[in-house]
């Protein structure tokens, strides 16, 4: 049934796969034509935005400009480091909560309170207690990103089919091997879903933290272009951030597809 449902979601004709690209192209053309005709101050034509982005970041002697290094390198470093630390924390805590009903019951009120607090609301606290700059931004990203990873990991561990646990018991697997070879692979779909969701959230919180407490990065550049009314540059930053989100999501989808495919192709001992 699952393969059949999957086939229904895929385009039946080859030309249907090109529809998203055609729709995006049509939207860009319409945007270009409308803004050229009406001369909208805060909505420059896409061609102007692309030209401004090229001048800002991609017109250097070695492709990237000094401005690109100043804007991209700090942001990507914070994004990668914050997501990695949050993933490690969320996975560890989620596995512990998923394996221990007692621990889950004891920490449930704290977890509910923590999840209910909007991460940007803690930014003033981080600003007051941490050095302004990367520590503040990392704290903001880690706090926001840990929750979806923790929750999906715990749910994934709790929802494992009993047959997998019985298989591990029959083979008398040590605790570590049971975790790495049985529990995590069995919970992989939900864990990967949480990790994928957290990538977009990490990008959002990176921008939020850089808007409030940074002297470099894309969020800081966005604030500067808005305050100086450099509208094409402001849109260039927005488009670049959107592109980073699309690229990150696409790469994670590819990784998720390969991991799940390799998991399905690996036979499970004692499980038909």
Q: What labels describe this entry?
A:
272 residues; mainly alpha; MetI-like fold; disordered C terminus
Characterize the structure shown:
- The protein is mainly α.
- It has a single domain (44-265), classed as MetI-like fold (Orthogonal Bundle).
- Helices cover 79% and strands 0% of the residues.
- It is built from eleven helices and no strands.
- It has helices at 2-9, 19-38, 46-57, 66-99, 101-116, 123-129, 134-158, 162-170, 175-212, 218-227, 231-265.
- Helix 9 (175-212) packs parallel to helix 10 (218-227) and helix 9 packs antiparallel against helix 11 (231-265).
- The chain is globular and about 70 Å long.
- It starts with a helix and ends in a 7-residue tail after the last helix.
- The model is unreliable at 1-9 and 267-272 (pLDDT under 50).
The tally of strands reads 0
State the major sheet.
none
Mean pLDDT: 86
Order of SSEs: HHHHHHHHHHH
CATH class: Mainly Alpha
The proportion of strand residues reads under 5%
Helix count, per DSSP? 11
Estimate the global geometry from the Cα principal axes.
globular
What percent of residues adopt helix (DSSP H or I)? over 70%
Transmembrane segments: 80-106, 193-213, 233-255
Domain ABC transmembrane type-1: 72-256
Protein name: ABC transporter permease
InterPro entries: MetI-like, MetI-like_sf
Which helices and strands occur, and which strands form pairs?
Blueprint: H1 2-9, H2 19-38, H3 46-57, H4 66-99, H5 101-116, H6 123-129, H7 134-158, H8 162-170, H9 175-212, H10 218-227, H11 231-265
